Amino acid sequence: MPVQLTGVSCQYGQCPALRGIDLVIPEGGLTVLCGVTGSGKSTLLRLLAGLAEPSSGRIDYSSEASAASVSIVFQKPESQLFAGSVRQDVEYGLEQRHIPEPQRSEAASRAMKRAGLDPEEYGQRSPFLLSGGEKRRVCIAGAIAPLPRLLLLDEPTAGLDPPSARALLDTVRELKRDGYTLVIATHDLDSFFPLADQVAVLSQGALCYSGPAQGLWSKARVLEDAGLEPPAYIRIGRRLMRQGRLDALPASAEELLARLDRHSLVYRGAGSAAERPSADKGSLCLSAEGAPLSAGGGPLAEGIRALAEDSRSPRGARRRILGEGGAAQPPADEAAAGAGVRPAAGAAATDATAAKSRSGTALQMLDPRVKWLAMILWSLVILNMKEALPLALAALMIGGLVIAAGISRQRTLWFYRPFLPMFLFLWLLSAFSWQGTEAGFPLQFSSGGALNGGLSVLRLGLLISLGFLFTETTSGAPLREGLEWAIAPLGKLGVRTRNWSLAVSVTLQFIPWILGRISSLQLALASRGNRKRGWGRWTPKHISLMAVPLLLQVISMGDELATAIEARGYDPSKPRTPWLVLRWRRRDTAALLLSALAAALLWRASF
Fold this sequence. Notes:
Blueprint: E1 3-12, E2 15-25, E3 30-34, H1 41-48, E4 56-60, E5 70-73, H2 86-96, H3 101-114, H4 119-122, H5 132-144, E6 150-154, H6 162-177, E7 181-185, H7 189-192, E8 198-203, E9 206-211, H8 214-218, H9 222-225, H10 232-242, H11 253-259, E10 265-267, E11 284-286, H12 299-312, H13 314-323, H14 346-359, H15 368-383, H16 388-404, H17 409-416, H18 419-431, E12 432-434, E13 443-445, H19 447-473, H20 476-487, H21 497-527, H22 540-567, H23 586-605
Parallel strand pairs: 3-7, 3-8, 5-6, 6-7, 10-11
Antiparallel strand pairs: 1-2, 1-4, 8-9, 12-13
């Protein structure tokens, strides 16, 4: 289906992710979105899928379609698989769209075949035990099972080995032949440019080119200015054209080779020098791996050698550095889209943003030891509060600190939302009591229990808020150094303080990571047809669907942490070089005194 974007902008907090996008996606075509990390590709896909709302502008679908006619496949398949078998996972989106049982099974089998999965072989297998390429195919099958009018793919070949990537490309070709309207966000320009009917280049959240891929080569440095490099076959073709070896740029690597097939490609095997054919005139010598040897001649070898020389030149090195740049993603989606310093912004923007990151807010610049001491002191005070007034004052103070720290409202809501069901459940446990069957209705409401339970839940929420404020304003290295300083005296008692500091710092940073995974799973469920808002997303069924993939991701992350610690030769019995040197300044003394004064006032108010 055709889709038109008019003046579409989007931002995360105060950070613009997209700015004034005007783009038409043609029906039945394949559009490639390209740009460096943080240029806005994933954000644009989420807007097209109806998973996010633009800050301004509009997205117009065809009269008979809407965002519900769109399916999206995210970059990480482990965040999109929920059911116990491949067939059940593919049928999930059909179930959400209320497709009857017989039609669901038939549609799932058809989608699996179209995605390159044999229903008989893969139908009853666990999707969590498949390879990366097979998981990506299951995600594609689940996306196309409802017969969407528009299919969105986010980095479909990322992390795949060459055979899996080639198989997935074959699947994309088949989907294109079947008439699907495809939008693919990718860095793999060599694979997808030859298939593209339209290319859209994003830079710093703005659209700097849209049109056929061939139009890019007539415009000077469009991709380079966006921090990207043209595909290898274009770079080689440009060199060969300058040498007079080609009369036009090739449309693909296959076309480049076909136009050079009159030149002999000499294979250099493992035999002796006397047995190897000589490389002269127009021949290209290849190593056993297929790479050109320096002794080989021919236009293609000359073009490749020229590219190698260019990559070693200052201009080529600058292009590589620019291409590797990108901003950090916003927390609601680990892949996702964000804003920050982009390569095309130039040195001035880079320096300005770097200076801003070095300065930060006043809370971020404080010594971590101040934050540790303040958090411990405030935690002790909050735990001893029994009345509503001091708890309310503490909540106001912590809320003011969150605002002063520059934490966005979206980030704060994202953090607290998963805790709300737990808070409500704990409050209900304390507000209702079981009186037995002889007292009439067995479940009785107690106003005293409700009040005490509400105060207990508020105390718990304030303690969690202190941890949220601490981790949001303190990165990993300062957090751990401050903790090791605080518990260093315990080392004289034989306590392995390094183990404790490592465990606490990892735990504090693990909580935001888990919340990020929950947000990703919720987004994936929404992309499969569960578009419920608010509490509708927290039904027992949906929580159970998220439990298994979340547990597997936590276990996987734990294994990776254990491997990283072991690989670095971690020995808790030996001293280590600190990651940074802590420096106590006057502002730290002032901040500690203010924290102690505020804690004393709260303590006084609670008695």
